[in-house]
Amino acid sequence: MTAEVKPAALQLTERQEARRRRILHASARLASRGGFDAVQMREVAENSGVALGTLYRYFPSKVHLLVATMQDQLQHMHETLRKRPPTEEEPAARVAQTLMRAFRALQREPHLADAMVRALTFADRSVSPEVDTVSRLTTAIILDAMGLDEAPTAEQLSAVRVIEHTWHSALITWLSGRASIAQVKIDIETVCRLIDLTAPTPAR
Amino acid sequence: MTAEVKPAALQLTERQEARRRRILHASARLASRGGFDAVQMREVAENSGVALGTLYRYFPSKVHLLVATMQDQLQHMHETLRKRPPTEEEPAARVAQTLMRAFRALQREPHLADAMVRALTFADRSVSPEVDTVSRLTTAIILDAMGLDEAPTAEQLSAVRVIEHTWHSALITWLSGRASIAQVKIDIETVCRLIDLTAPTPAR
DNA sequence: CGCTAGCCTAGAACGAGTTCCAGTGACTCG
DNA sequence: CGAGTCACTGGAACTCGTTCTAGGCTAGCG
Questions:
Q1: Is residue A132 very low, low, confident or very high in pLDDT (cuts 50, 70, 90)?
Q2: Which of A114, A120, A145, B63 sits a CA distance of 20 to 30 A from A74?
Q3: For residue B203, is pLDDT > 80?
Q4: pLDDT, tens digit, for every residue of A149-186?
Q5: pLDDT at B115 over 70
């Protein structure tokens, strides 16, 4: 990671950066209270001391705002995870361990997780760039966890994409109460087996 | 003292069943025009010759309506797929072939697919039973495609769940323009490898 | 110093999902 | 036959995301 890749924010002044932070903070706070529905644009604006129109200048829709919130949280998590890399040996186990850590972190703020994930999957084409950024962040977290020596192969990247798919979707089923935590764990462990399967030096 | 009954499936008169059909039909038609946003409750009501309040009696929210629409379409697809079972030999290939067929069918009505999938992933707890029905239908389609002789093992069921996760999430990335059709194909083929991996009598 | 350009604020206004209400018609039970 | 019940109708009303308008404040520039 070299420079800030904020697309919407080109050279913000300090006051503007502070506003942006206040908005994201208010968004996360409201989200952790009551999830997606609790993040109401008027309230976000009020809580961050900004006019409604200004909020919309910074984030052109509620989904944009929540996806940006997710970016923020993910960056946080990425750093945290980096500080304590997984203890397992095998790449598959390392990824599973990392994702379960992330999952436990989300469990602590289920409403926030709900808001962010719902926004992410509900996002339409107009939010694609931002969603893509989130996706790249997630990919980076997984690749980090794998602890590869060399660049990943195309096959491995496919496996990582599938793991991401499973991660998001499993999260949704858990958030909507249709899957238990144990089931999410099993699903993650199952999909992580793909990593062994696509290792360049097969241990099959 | 009459017990509260689920309005969906229990003891509808003929006129009511006809109304329900008209509503679902109007919903699908509007969805195939312009996706999620084009399905407007007032318009659905008008197009199916029903008052708005009545529409809400049958389907308590737009998401409920669209998930029910998906149920309907999935049932259709299940029958169609049954009539032409996959030609491949190996279970993994059979499932991949079946899902790609389903995918091509969705490509023909991308807006409809958009509306249904967005509704599905956006659904909150109040829609859990309906979403679960959709999930069971999908599971049935995949299990059918596998062409098992015996009941699936727990491991296989995990693999099927992961395939479902991947299916939904890959669909979303395609619908929001962040993945190409080729990429969806690769992801599906990748995840289907889990089937071989969890086969009770390993084919390799 | 005054002007113009932007960004910001307050608040009205609009659209679509959802809820509510008064009335109507049909069917059942007494 | 009469009364009550219940689904349906038409439409008003409410909420919240989003857009629009008018005016104010700041900054840079002549």
A1: very high
A2: B63
A3: no
A4: 899 999 999 999 999 999 999 999 999 999 999 999 99
A5: yes
In 3D, which of B14, B110, B115 has the Cα closest to residue B68?
B115
What is the per-residue burial (b if ≥16 Cβ within 10 Å, else e) of B27-37? bbebbbeebbe
Per-residue flag: A53 CB under 7 A of strand C: yes
Proximity of residue A106 CB to strand C below 7 A: no
Name every chain A residue with its beta carbon within 8 A of the beta carbon of B92: none
pLDDT of residue A2: 30
CB A190 within 8 A of CB B162: yes
CB nearest to A178's CB, from B132, B169, B190: B132
Residue with tokens 């312009």: B34
- Of all protein residues, which has its CA closest to the C1' atom of C18? B61
Which of these CATH numbers, 1.10.10.10, 1.10.357.10, 1.10.150.120, 3.30.70.360, describes B61-192?
A: 1.10.357.10
Interface-testing mutation among B161, B192, B195, B198, with chain A (most A C-beta atoms within 10 A): B161
Q: Tell me the whole-structure pTM to 2 decimals.
A: 0.91
Distance CA A148, CA A78 (A): 17
